[in-house]
Fold:
Amino acid sequence: MIYALIICTVLYILIALILTGMVNYKDLAVGDPLAHVFAETNLNFMAGIVAMSAIVAITSVFLVFQIGQPRILMTMSRDGLLPRAFAKIHPRFKTPYVATIATGLLVAIPALFLNLTEVTDLTSIGTLFAFAIVSGGGVAAGNQPHL
Structure:
């Protein structure tokens, strides 16, 4: 995992250096700098590919985040921290369907009305918050006396 982080960091730095070599760094203060650079250098086909790839990547990240949240809600419901409805399992698909629907609506409706920057910021904050709660629960459970 550390190697993957190192490789991603090196690639990120190299791309940033290449982009600042292609256009002035002041022109990169946009939401999609990589696609913007290709558009500025009249490589519109590449700009379209990069923009479409970004949409696919952001969508896949949102879906991955959506997979974990219903399971967290289901577990919290089983522990009595949320209403029991969140622990209901679909008879055919064996998934927590009430939690999945609630999470999907809670994420999809605001995403329709917010801009992309706000949605990605909220996603990152929500994921960090979920991991903090799970970690805190693990620490609290670890401090309980063993029987």
About this structure: The radius of gyration is 21 Å. The mean pLDDT is 84.
